[in-house]
Design a protein that fits this description.
With 134 residues, the chain is of the alpha+beta class. The protein has 3 helices and 7 strands. Strands 5-4-6-3-2-1-7 form a 7-stranded mixed beta sheet. The longest helix has 14 residues, at 2-15.
Length: 134
C-alpha cells in the first residue's frame, strides 16, 4: 500500500512538472522538461537557479542528447544519465558564453540534469553515480 501511495505522490508531482531526485547524497527539486518545446527552451532567459533546484530533461530514447547555452543568463553543471539513472558524463561550470557550442555525453543517455554551476563539485558528483527518484 505504501508503494502505491508513493507512486501516486511521484505521479502527482510529475503532473505538476516537478519531482524530487537524489544525486550524490544531495536532494534536488527538478522541473521536468519532457516535450520537444520544453527541452528546446530549457532554462533559457531565466534567472539563476537557487541551490537545490534544477531541470531534468527526459527523452523518449537513448541518444547523444546535446545541450547548448542559447539565451542563458548563468552557468550550469550539466549531468547526463543513462536509462537506469547511472551518470555517464558531467560537464562542469558551463558558461553562457560557450554558445553556440553544443555539449554532448560521452555515452548514450536518456536523462539530462541541469543544476547551478558548482553543484557537481560541492556534492562530489562523478560518472558512475546514480540519479534516484525520491
Amino acid at each position: 500500500m505504501a508503494a502505491v501511495i508513493a507512486a501516486a505522490i511521484v505521479f502527482s508531482n510529475y503532473q505538476q512538472g516537478r519531482i524530487l531526485i537524489s544525486i550524490g547524497g544531495a536532494k534536488v527539486e527538478v522541473e521536468i522538461a519532457d516535450s520537444t518545446a520544453e527541452r528546446i527552451r530549457g532554462l533559457s532567459g531565466r534567472d539563476p537557479l537557487p541551490e537545490g533546484k534544477g531541470m531534468l530533461f527526459i527523452f523518449e530514447s537513448d541518444g547523444y542528447h546535446g545541450i547548448w547555452m542559447r539565451d542563458m543568463r548563468f552557468a550550469l553543471d550539466i549531468v547526463w544519465a543513462d536509462a537506469k539513472g547511472k551518470i555517464v558524463t558531467v560537464a562542469r561550470n558551463v558558461a553562457p558564453e560557450t554558445y553556440p557550442k553544443v555539449f554532448e555525453p560521452s555515452a548514450l543517455a536518456r536523462y539530462v540534469l541541469e543544476v547551478p554551476a558548482g553543484f557537481a563539485k560541492r556534492n562530489s558528483i562523478a560518472e558512475g553515480d546514480k540519479i534516484v527518484l525520491k
